[in-house]
C-alpha cells in the first residue's frame, strides 16, 4: 500500500509539464532540489516542497489528505492560490516568505487553521469556494530552506502534522476538570465522563461501569457517539444495565493490574478508577486500530479526575438523598382536584449543598366546599428548617379547618411559630448567630406564607400574605378581551412574616374561567446582587410569552424558564391554581415493571379515552406517548410506576411516575439509544407540552395533548390562549 501511494506521487511529478511552471523543465532542476523531493516522497509524514518565489507545490501522498478536493489539481500550483484562505495568516505566508528570503527555518508547534478542503480548481485556473469538507484544525509545522550550490534558497521543505485530535483530547480533559468541579451526584459525574471520554478516547461508544449493590456484579451506563440527547433527556437518570461477563472480565483484569487494559487490536480500552473506597471503570469501544500515544497520555489525568469526583459524589448522594427525602415526605404526595378547579405544584431543590430547605405547599378542601391552598418558606436551611416546615404545614390544616378566615389562620400560626421558637433545642440554631447554651432560636425563627381559599363554583378567592412574595395572576382568553395583559403580579397588602406580630389583611379577587393564580417561594426570584424587582421583571417577561397550558405545564414552564434565565441559588416551589371551564376527570393505574405491562397500559388508555369520547386521532397520539413513557420507566426504574390520565378542558395530561432505585442494575442488554434517543424525543414531538422531573423517590415524566371531542370534531376548550 505504501509503495502504491509513493508511486502516485512520483507519477504526478514525472508526468507534469514543469516547463510551464516557474520551476522550468525537470531536467534542469538543481540536484539539491531533486534530493529534497526524494526526501519528501519517501517521508511517511505529510511533506510539501514549496519551490521558488512563487512557492510552487510538490507534495507526497501523505500530504494530499490535508488538501481534500484540491488534489490533484494543486500539484504544481502556487501555494498562494492553493491555500489562499490561510496564506495571509501571519503564521502561514509570512513564515514561508521569511524562510525563503532569509534562509531562516521555522517551527510552529500549534496553529489553528481553517482549510477549505472542499475547494476545487476550475477550468480557467481559479478556485471555487469551500465545501462540506471545510473545518478548523490544529497543526504542528516546520519549514526548512533547501539551499542550492551557491547558497541561494531553492525551496522550503514543509513538514506538517495535524494535531487536531490530540488538541481535542487535551481540551476534553480540561473540559472534564471544569465540569466535574460542578458535578455533584454520581449521575452527574457519569454523564460528564461519558460525554468527554467520547472525544478523549475516540470512542464509538463509552460505558461507565460501577459496582452493583448485589455482590460480585457490575452495572453500566452507555453512551453512543451518534446519540443526541435533548435537555429534557439529559435531566433524566442514566439507564443502568447489567454488565456482561466478557466486559466484567476485562474490568477485573484492569483493576487487578491497576492500569488501563488495551486490547491487541485497540478496539477495547478499559480504564480503572478508585472512587473513594470502591472501584469503577470506563470501557471504550473504538474502531479497530492501534491506540495513539496521545490517547494513552490522557488516561492518567482522566483517572485522577474521575476517581476524585466519583468519591465525592458517592458521599454527596447519600447525604442529599436523605435530605431530599426528608423534605419531600413532608410535602403532600398529591393535590386535590375538583370539577371546576385544577391545581399543580413543582418543587426544585437547589443543586448545591446537601441540606434540606424550608419551602412547602399544600392544598385541601374546607368544610364549606372551598379549596384552601398555601405556599410558604421557613427562613433557613437544613434538617431543622425542613422539620419546622412540616410542623407549620400541619398547623395550617388544623387552623384552617377550625376557622378558615385568613386573619384567624395567620393568628393561630403566629402562636405556633412563637412556640417552636421557644421550644426548639438550643444546639440547632437556625440563623447565622450561634445560640448560647439555654437559648433556642432567640427570636430568629420566621416563616413567610401565602394562604388562600377559592370557591370552585364562583371563582371567588380570598388571599392573605405573611411577608411572602406577591403571587401572579394569569388571565384567560375571556378576561383579556378588555385589554388585560397575559399575566401580572397581584397588587395586595403584605403583612409581616409569621413569628413577627402584625396584621395580614385579606385580599379578595375573582378567578374567572380560564384564569390561573400562581404562587411561588422567593427562591424563584431572588439572586445575589440583584434587587427583588429585577426578579419580578424577569417573571413578568416570562408570563407575557407563556404558552397555553394546564396548571401542571404552567408550573413546569415558569420554573424552568426562570431557572434557565438566571440560575438557581435556593430551593424554590411553584403552586398553580386554575379555574376550569369544564369538568375534570382522572383515571390512574399502577404498572408493574415488566415488558408485557406496556401493552396492558396501552389497552387501558384506549378504553379510558374512548369512554371520555376523545377523537380517534388524539387517542393514537396519547397511546403512543404512553407506550414510550412506560417503556422508559421499565428500563430506567425497574420498579412499578403510576400512570395517571387527566382530562381537563380539552387537555389530556398523562403522568408516569416511578419510584426508581436510581442506579441498580435493571435490564440485561438494554439499548440506551432505543429509549433516550428515540422514545422521549418522539413524545416531545407529538405532545403539546412535555416535561421530566426527578425526585428523591424516582422520576416523573409527563406530557399533554390538546384533544377534540369525537362527536363535534371541535376542541373541547382549553386553558389560557
TrEMBL record:
Signal peptide: none annotated. Residues 338-579 form the PPM-type phosphatase domain. The keyword Cell division does not apply. CDD domains: HATPase_RsbW-like. Keywords: Hydrolase, Kinase, Transferase. GO terms for molecular function: kinase activity; phosphatase activity. This is Histidine kinase-like ATPase domain-containing protein. It comes from Pedococcus dokdonensis.
Amino acid at each position: 500500500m505504501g509503495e502504491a501511494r509513493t508511486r502516485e506521487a512520483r507519477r504526478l511529478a514525472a508526468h507534469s509539464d514543469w516547463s510551464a511552471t516557474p520551476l522550468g523543465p525537470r531536467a534542469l532542476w538543481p540536484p539539491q532540489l531533486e534530493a529534497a523531493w526524494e526526501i519528501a516522497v519517501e517521508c511517511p509524514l505529510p511533506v510539501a516542497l514549496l519551490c521558488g518565489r512563487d512557492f510552487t507545490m510538490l507534495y507526497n501522498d501523505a500530504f494530499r489528505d490535508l488538501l481534500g478536493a484540491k488534489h490533484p489539481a494543486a500539484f504544481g500550483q502556487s501555494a498562494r492560490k492553493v491555500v489562499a484562505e490561510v496564506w495571509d495568516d501571519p503564521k502561514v505566508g509570512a513564515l514561508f516568505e521569511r524562510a525563503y528570503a532569509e534562509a531562516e527555518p521555522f517551527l510552529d508547534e500549534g496553529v489553528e487553521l481553517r482549510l477549505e478542503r472542499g475547494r476545487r480548481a476550475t477550468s480557467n485556473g481559479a478556485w471555487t469556494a469551500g465545501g462540506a469538507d471545510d473545518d478548523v484544525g490544529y497543526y504542528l509545522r516546520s519549514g526548512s530552506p533547501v539551499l542550492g550550490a551557491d547558497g541561494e534558497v531553492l525551496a522550503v521543505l514543509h513538514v506538517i502534522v495535524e494535531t487536531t485530535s490530540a488538541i481535542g483530547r487535551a481540551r476534553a480533559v480540561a473540559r472534564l476538570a471544569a465540569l466535574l468541579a460542578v458535578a455533584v451526584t454520581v449521575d452527574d459525574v457519569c454523564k460528564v465522563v461519558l460525554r468527554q471520554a467520547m472525544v478523549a478516547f475516540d470512542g464509538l461508544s463509552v460505558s461507565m461501569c460501577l459496582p452493583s449493590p448485589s455482590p460480585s456484579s457490575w452495572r453500566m451506563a452507555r453512551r453512543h457517539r451518534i446519540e443526541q440527547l435533548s435537555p429534557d433527556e439529559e435531566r433524566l437518570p442514566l439507564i443502568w444495565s447489567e454488565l456482561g461477563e466478557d466486559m466484567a472480565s476485562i474490568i477485573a483484569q484492569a483493576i487487578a493490574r491497576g492500569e488501563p487494559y488495551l486490547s491487541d487490536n485497540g478496539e477495547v480500552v478499559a480504564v480503572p478508577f478508585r472512587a473513594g473506597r470502591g472501584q469503577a471503570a470506563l470501557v471504550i469501544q473504538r474502531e479497530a486500530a492501534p491506540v495513539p500515544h496521545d490517547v494513552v497520555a490522557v488516561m492518567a489525568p482522566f483517572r485522577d479526575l474521575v476517581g476524585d469526583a466519583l468519591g465525592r459524589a458517592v458521599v454527596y448522594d447519600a447525604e442529599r438523598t436523605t435530605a431530599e427525602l426528608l423534605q419531600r415526605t413532608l410535602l403532600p404526595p398529591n393535590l386535590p382536584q375538583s370539577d371546576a378547579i385544577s391545581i399543580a405544584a413543582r418543587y426544585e431543590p437547589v443543586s448545591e449543598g446537601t441540606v434540606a430547605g424550608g419551602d412547602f405547599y399544600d392544598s385541601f378542601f374546607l368544610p364549606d366546599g372551598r379549596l384552601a391552598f398555601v405556599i410558604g418558606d421557613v427562613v433557613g436551611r437544613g434538617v431543622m428548617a425542613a422539620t419546622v416546615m412540616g410542623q407549620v404545614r400541619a398547623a395550617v390544616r388544623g387552623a384552617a379547618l377550625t376557622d378558615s378566615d385568613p386573619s384567624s389562620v395567620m393568628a393561630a400560626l403566629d402562636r405556633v411559630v412563637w412556640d417552636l421558637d421557644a421550644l426548639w433545642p438550643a444546639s440547632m440554631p437556625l440563623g447565622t448567630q450561634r445560640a448560647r447554651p439555654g437559648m433556642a432560636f432567640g427570636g430568629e425563627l420566621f416563616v413567610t406564607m401565602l394562604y388562600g381559599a377559592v370557591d370552585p363554583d364562583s371563582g371567588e378567592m380570598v388571599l392573605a400574605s405573611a411577608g411572602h412574595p406577591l403571587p401572579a395572576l394569569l388571565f384567560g382568553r375571556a378576561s383579556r378581551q378588555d385589554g388585560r395583559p397575559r399575566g401580572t403580579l397581584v397588587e395586595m397588602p403584605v403583612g409581616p412574616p409569621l413569628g413577627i406580630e402584625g396584621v395580614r389583611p385579606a385580599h379578595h379577587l375573582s378567578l374567572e374561567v380560564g384564569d390561573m393564580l400562581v404562587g411561588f417561594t422567593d427562591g424563584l426570584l431572588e439572586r445575589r446582587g440583584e434587587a427583588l424587582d429585577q426578579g419580578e421583571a424577569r417573571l413578568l417577561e416570562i408570563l407575557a410569552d407563556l404558552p397555553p397550558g394546564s396548571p401542571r405545564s404552567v408550573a413546569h414552564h415558569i420554573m424552568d424558564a426562570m431557572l434557565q434565565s438566571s440560575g438557581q441559588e435556593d430551593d424554590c416551589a411553584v403552586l398553580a391554581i386554575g379555574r376550569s371551564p369544564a369538568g375534570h376527570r382522572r383515571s390512574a393505574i399502577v404498572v408493574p415493571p415488566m415488558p408485557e405491562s406496556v401493552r396492558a397500559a396501552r389497552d387501558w388508555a384506549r378504553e379510558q379515552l374512548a369512554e371520555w369520547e376523545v377523537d380517534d386521532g388524539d387517542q393514537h397520539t396519547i397511546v403512543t406517548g404512553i407506550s414510550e413513557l412506560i417503556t422508559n420507566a421499565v428500563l430506567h426504574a425497574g420498579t412499578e410506576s403510576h400512570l395517571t390520565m387527566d382530562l381537563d378542558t380539552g387537555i389530556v395530561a398523562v403522568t408516569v411516575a416511578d419510584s426508581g432505585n436510581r442506579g441498580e442494575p435493571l435490564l440485561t442488554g438494554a439499548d440506551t439509544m432505543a429509549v433516550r434517543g428515540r422514545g422521549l424525543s418522539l413524545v416531545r414531538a407529538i405532545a403539546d407540552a412535555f416535561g421530566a422531573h426527578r425526585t428523591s423517590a424516582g422520576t416523573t415524566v409527563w406530557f399533554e395533548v390538546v384533544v377534540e371531542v369525537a362527536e363535534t370534531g371541535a376542541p373541547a376548550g382549553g386553558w389560557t390562549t
